[in-house]
Design goal:
Strand 7 and strand 8 form a beta hairpin. It is built from 3 helices and 8 strands, in the order ββααββββββα.
Length: 153
């Protein structure tokens, strides 16, 4: 998912996010619905004196909550590309872990390597001989759209 905002005349900001599986609100709703369903089953089992299975339902709900929480954390990753008149700033943000890379616009160039049978396409920018890949976690259509957008700046 690519979000583009033009800040000023020659300033642009791009947010590159992988397509999230579910939003945090939906994750909470699913978890609460599943926990209520398991609670109803536990009450029914306790009415017919089958107490041995009830703790296993609780463990199942705990593991599901953990898995959904990890899913929500993994979907908080995004990349931010800020392009102004003189600089290009690329930030990789994963919650509080932020990695920033700065480039001089006149010396930097975005390159696109098309997909082959074995490898996906790549968008890169180089700095002092080191190649930095961006948009690694998005699909091919979004990568092509992003590169066409980057060419226009």
């Amino acid at each position: 998912m690519i979000e583009h905002t033009a800040l000023k005349l020659e300033e642009h900001r791009l947010i590159i996010r992988p397509n999230p599986a579910m939003s945090w609100k939906l994750i909470k709703k699913i978890y609460i619905a599943f926990a209520l369903f398991v609670l109803v089953i536990a009450v029914i089992l306790s009415m017919i004196n089958v107490y041995l299975a009830i703790p296993f339902y609780g463990v199942e709900v705990i593991f599901l909550g953990y898995a959904l929480y990890i899913t929500a954390l993994k979907s908080s990753y995004y990349e931010e590309v800020k392009i102004d008149k003189f600089n290009i700033k690329i930030s990789f943000v994963n919650r509080k872990n932020v990695k920033n890379y700065d480039f001089v616009r006149q010396w930097a160039e975005f390159k696109f390597k098309p997909a082959t049978n074995l490898t996906p396409s790549e968008i890169s920018i180089s700095k002092k001989g080191k190649i930095l890949l961006i948009a690694k976690r998005v699909n091919e259509a979004d990568r092509k759209k992003l590169f066409n957008l980057l060419k226009t700046f």
